[in-house]
Amino acid sequence: QEDDDSCSDYGSCDKPGTASGRPVPDGNVLFPDIFHTDHLLFYERFKAYQDYILADCKASEVKEFTAEYLEKVLEPSGWQAIWRTNVFEVLVEVVDVEYSALKAVVQLSEPFLCESRVSTFTLECMQELLQLKERRIPLQELWVVYDESGEFDQSALAVEHVRFFYQCIWRTWDEEEEDDFDYFVRCVEPRLRLHYDILEHRVPSDLVANYQNLLSQCEELYRKFLDVRNSISSSDLDSEVENVSMVEGLRLYEKIEHLKQKLKLIENPLLRYVFGYQKCSGLQAKGLRATGTKVTHVVSSSVTTSLLQSLIRDKLCPESCSEELEIQFHNDPLVAVNACYEGDTVIICPGHYVVDGVFCIADSVELEGYGMPDDIVIEKRGKGDNFVDCTGANVRISSLKLVQHDAVEGILNVHCGKTTLKNCVLQCETTGITVRTSAELVMENSDLYGAKGAGVEIYPGSTCILLNNGIHHCKEGILIKNFLDEHYDIPKITMVNNMIHNNGGYGVVLVRPTMPSDVKDASAETKKGIFAFLEETPETSKSSIPSFKLFGYFVQLLMTFLLFSDLGNIQPTQSADGTTCIEGFRQGVQPQCVTDELDLRDQAEISEQTEGNYEVANELGAASAKKSQMSKKRLSKLGITEADDDLMSQEMFVSIVGNQFKWNGEGSFGTFLF
């Protein structure tokens, strides 16, 4: 069997569920080696429970089916095992197996080998304990001793399957659940998948902790419920005490059912993340402090005199500041953020900070790096978590480098409110930034890379402003979620001067359902709204170029100008030879002709970049127009023939200017149909 790091539910083996692991030292030289069976792969356990042990049994038949399986594969005697409890370990010999009870009849091996946390477990004490237990030990407490002959390989696996099932899969209340459904499909498979998802760090640690907490609560309440139910006397149900017990029993039962439903949500791989997101989006803001004061939190691993003087000069006591500042010092940025209230500021000094937790920012807080982003690194070590969750009305993050490792979820999640990201570097692991419905993201002068999903994921009804950023070496650059459903609003997206390059797929991807009708007729109207800032000059409006080509011509021409001039400082003119040129009004810039300055290679490159902007805007504009058409049809069916122009003229792009799309594996824009 391979080591723990290689365990995966995608592993392979010639005989699923039958391979026995190599022996490993027990840790104490007194004990013989045991079979190493606790690192079985997902599919090995899956096949064993589905094909050999449980099949299509009901919950009430689990013990019976397990006993039948053990009768076929478990040797009734002649093998040794280590009996393990929380207090001691002792070597025993199995002399018989009671299959129906899932227990083994044992005796102490000779010589007597025992290891305990207390010194009172002598040979006599252990013999007395066995007498009290009638020498019958649950199979899940036994670890089979390794035997080179191979005779007990299947016995070791059988004991492991029993142990794992009752430790990780079985719940004490399962037997009272409905018996009309296949127990394996209903309970075993989802719990087994969850177990391996947790082992392989595919579930956020907060969700794992929540699941374990819910499970503990449910088990405790179920024990109380059983006590109450057993205490009710069948002979005197009319007594006041019995009535109180019945009311208490019903109350406990309702609580248990509520907890069981929560457990099932997390066990379901399709629903567990919905459950998790609801938890995150429900973060409660602290608001202002009772005193009304705002605190500046300074984070530094160590504070030197020079650093303190610089902070006082630049941040803490600038000349323009006339108010007294309350300052708190921390050495952990996560602790500083958790201590924040509405309006607080966190200043993070240069250093490399390693955190194991999630930044949950529910108030309007500013996180500011004091220096260059590469000098202020916050590295996330905990597996399976978000890095930063934002729900605050106005969260500002600047001059930081965020590094994510071994993650399940994205590096930044904007659930609601507005988050502004400036001059930051984001080294992602899974998804990059997610902007959820009704949330707003402003990302400026930042660099994002390394996402195994999309660099930026935009949900319907959100607002996303991307200015002067680099988004590269991700699976996809920007992914826009389907917004064509009648319940969704069109997202508002601004893209200006971004460099989207070296992504494995497309620069921009739109996810939408397959539509039966063509939307080309609506695209021309949409272009007019999207590119409202483009106007035809009198000279070109009389051109004989067809209108569609004319539109593309002006887009390409003006996008070329934008690479060399500010939009507000240029206007097209005619040169002496009739070539279109630019007049520059910036100081020190003389009027010059583009065609005279650019060589053919530069022109081709700029044309490619311009076409990328045009393609993205055109395709998304067509989808936006389709959304408008669908809305009009729905209103028409309701008898509404005139709609608010502001509502019906929603456009996806507020602006798309100067973006460069280079070396993306599939091109500038793509559509994922479902």
Topology:
Blueprint: E1 23-24, E2 34-35, H1 42-53, H2 62-73, E3 79-84, E4 88-98, E5 103-108, E6 114-116, H3 123-132, E7 136-138, E8 142-144, H4 153-169, H5 183-199, H6 205-231, H7 240-267, H8 272-281, E9 295-299, H9 305-316, E10 326-330, H10 333-338, E11 345-348, E12 351-355, E13 359-361, E14 366-369, E15 376-380, E16 388-390, E17 394-398, E18 401-404, E19 412-414, E20 418-422, E21 425-427, E22 433-435, E23 440-444, E24 447-449, E25 454-458, E26 463-467, E27 470-472, E28 476-480, E29 492-496, E30 499-501, E31 506-512, H11 520-530, H12 538-541, H13 547-562, E32 572-574, E33 580-582, H14 594-597, H15 600-637, H16 645-648, E34 653-657, E35 660-662, E36 667-673
Parallel strand pairs: 9-10, 9-11, 11-14, 12-15, 13-16, 14-17, 15-18, 16-19, 17-20, 18-21, 19-22, 20-23, 21-24, 22-25, 23-26, 24-27, 25-28, 26-29, 27-30, 28-31, 29-34, 30-35, 31-36
Antiparallel strand pairs: 1-2, 3-4, 3-8, 4-5, 4-6, 5-7, 32-33
